[in-house]
Structure formats: C-alpha cells, structure tokens
Amino acid sequence: MTPPPGPIYLDHNASTPVLPEVRDAMLPYLGEYFGNPSSTHMYGQAMKAAVERAREQVASLIDCAPREVYFTSGGTEANNLAIRGLAAANPERRHIITTVIEHPATLAPCNGLEREGYRVDTLPVDETGRVDPGQLSRVVGPDTLLVTVAHANSETGSLQSVGQLAKIAHEAGALMHADAAQSVGKIPVSVASEGQDLLSVAGHKLYAPQGVGALYVRAGVNIEPLLTGAGHEGGLRPGTENVASIVGLGRACAIAQRDLAVESQRLLQLRERLWRRLLEGVPGLALNGHAEFRLPNTLNVRFPGVSGNRLLEKCPSIAASTGSACHESGESGSAVILAMGVDPVDAVGSVRLTMGRSNTEDDIDTAANALIEAWRTLV
Questions:
Q1: I need a surface site. Which of 34, 142, 200, 332 has the fewest CB within 10 A?
Q2: Per the domain annotation, does 1 fall within a domain?
Q3: Are the C-beta atoms of 293 and 130 separated by less than 8 Å?
Q4: Is the pTM of this model over 0.85?
Q5: Could you tell me how far CA 57 lies from the centroid of its own chain?
Q6: How many CA atoms lie within 13 A of 24 on its CB side?
Q7: Residues in the chain, pLDDT under 50
Q8: Is 326 a catalytic residue?
Q9: What is the pLDDT of residue 332?
Q10: Phi-psi category of 173—alpha, beta or left, where left has phi over 0 and alpha has psi -120 to 50?
C-alpha cells in the first residue's frame, strides 16, 4: 500500500486509510448496482446479496454466526445500541459496570442511564491500564445487567482480560459487552471462545470507510432498537442500508482475517523498533500501558520535561496524537493516562504513536530521529 503524501502517518488508532482492495470492492455499489436491498426485484436482490456476503465476512472475523451481526453507522452507534438497547429491553436489572478509561461512546450512554436512575459502577485500572478481575467480582451482583469494557484501549493499546471478565459477569447472571473498535483486525477476536454477548466494530479502524460499523448480538440476547421506522437489520437498525460502505467493511474484515498473523507480527516489530530507537535517544522515556498485553501497533510514551503537544508541533513530518487536553489554565494529561496513576506533570509529555499497513522501517527510523531531535530542542 502506497502511503499518502505528507507527514508519516502514525495515528492509525484514530483512523485508517481505505485500502485499495476495499475501495475497489465498493465502487460497483456506487454506480453499477443501485437498487434498494429491501426490493424483491433483481436490482434490490443484488444489493441484498452484497449485504449478506459482507455480514458473513464480518462474522467470520469475530467467530460468530452471520445472523448475529447487525450493521450500524460505526462504533459509537454500536456501543449506544448495545448499552441503551439492552437496558430498554431488560428493565428488571438496573446496574451497569464499566471502567474509568472507556471511550466517550461508552461512558456517555452509561452516564445517561445513571441520570435515569440506573446504578453505574466505574472500575479503576492499574498502572498498566488494566482492570483487576477481582474488582469486578466484588462489584457485580444479582441486579447487574451489563459489564461493558473496551477490549483494547485506544490510547495505550492495553488489552483487557475480556474472557475472564465475561466469565465473572455470567456467573452473576449479567451480560458482557466489549467495545472492540481497536482490537478487531489487529489481534484475534473470538466471541465464541471469549464469551462476549455483545461486541462493537468500527470500520474506519480496520481500513474500511468512516461511517460504517457493526454490532454483534449473541443469539437469544434481547435488545431494543434506538430508532424506529422500519424493520431493517432484524428490526434493530431501521433505515436503508449503506450498501457500498457495508461491502467495504466486509472486504476489510476478509483482508484482516487473511493477513492477521503476518501483519500483526510485522507491526509488533515496527513498534519495538521505534521503542528501542526512542529509548536510545531520550533518557527517562517511559511507557504508558502494559509491556506485553498490548496491541501490536500501539506505542504510547512519556517524554520527560516537555509537553507532548509542543513536541508534535516541532515534528511536522509526523502525524500523531497525545490525548492531552488544552484549556485556559494550561494543559492537562489524558484522562486515560491520569487514571493509570501517572503524575499529572509527567502525563502531559505523553504521545501516542500507532502504526499501520503503510508504515515501513524507514518511516520508523525517520520518525524516531525527528522525535528525538524535537525533544532535545525543548528540554
């Protein structure tokens, strides 16, 4: 894949470029094929067949039945549908458990339910960004409806023990939802073996277009739609399907499954190469996240004595992010990094560097040199 012109792109956890193979699969559905998938004639049925083929491709990647996959506009809608839809369908249980480091697409619907009278417990994380399953065991109870946890954190890449958390939830009669926007396509994900009852997928995190995603709902789990108006997607997501983007998501999932072992190992090698180069040039550099249980493409590091935002301003040849917040009183560290117990002064030096298919060893070496030089000019 040819990298786009401009800075070296090290922000793949924010969004990925659409793969040429994905784009080529979508193009016929932006022109040649145009029918409504709900129509019974040839034009509509061609579109319906494309949607069902994509459903099979998504299901194959996450190890579920195609009938358990429902297409959405992305990870945010999938998370909202999972959390609020489950609550609407199961009013007898009024307790939700999540974590302090969740994406706003999880925290916001949980907070909304709390305002409606639900009890919401927010679990802490340790210094590596992981939840202690023992904490969940102490909080979950007979009134618990749902445990909702991101499989992989978008900032640090730290992985949660979703299988163990699901087992604890199930023993209490609760259900398990995983926001897998960051993990699907980067590491193996199997709802069959890990035990998630609901799982969210975001297309633009795995080289499909922005604005498309999916929600896995285990057969037998009862949820209500957030929107009303028609019976599309098994009655859970009304509205004529975005067929071209759904085809793109399906193709991206097929590519991810085909290349997963090789590409994840390649990204791991690039990540470790970047880590070693930065360690050599930046005394006092520290890692944010778990050293082992982490996405293979994700490196979040703290540069001592500097602001991560200022550092990246000094590196226009690199496109990356920090997660830090800027406001009138100054700059504060990312909420995720602070929740891990990092000193607030140190937290502002954090930078997230996330690699993808377009990156090469030359990119990594160039980026490392630029970051080291920028750091030296600021300290």
A1: 142
A2: no
A3: yes
A4: yes
A5: 18
A6: 4
A7: 3
A8: yes
A9: 86
A10: left
| 140/14 Cα distance (integer angstroms) | 32
Q: Let me know whether 116 and 27 are in one domain.
A: yes
271 and 224 belong to one structural domain = no
Same-domain check for residues 38 and 179: yes
CB atoms within 10 A of CB 229: 8
For position 331, what pLDDT does the model report?
A: 80
The token duo for 245 is 């983007």
Q: Which phi and psi (to 5°) does residue 298 adopt?
A: -110, 125
Alpha-carbon gap, residue 34 to 28, rounded angstroms: 9
The rounded Cα 5 to chain-centroid distance in angstroms is 26
- Find the CATH number of the domain harbouring 232: 3.40.640.10
Residue 204's nearest CA partner among 230, 181, 231 is 181
Q: Are 158 and 290 in contact (CB under 8 A)?
A: yes
pLDDT at position 373 is 98
Identify whether residues 183 and 325 lie together within a single domain: no
**Residue 60: alpha-carbon gap to chain centroid:** 18
CB contact set of 43 (below 8 Å; sequence gap of 6+)? 33, 34, 35, 36
Distance CA 77, CA 83 (A): 10
Residue 225 shares a structural domain with residue 109: yes
How many degrees, rounded to 5, is the angle at CA 157 between CA 318 and CA 119? 130
State how far the Cα of 295 lies from the Cα of 156, in Å rounded to an integer.
8
CA–CA gap between residue 72 and residue 241 (Å, rounded): 9
pLDDT at 365: 98
Structural contact between residues 255 and 26, judged by C-beta atoms closer than 8 angstroms: no
Q: Which of 242, 203, 257, 210 is closest to 50 using CA atoms?
A: 242
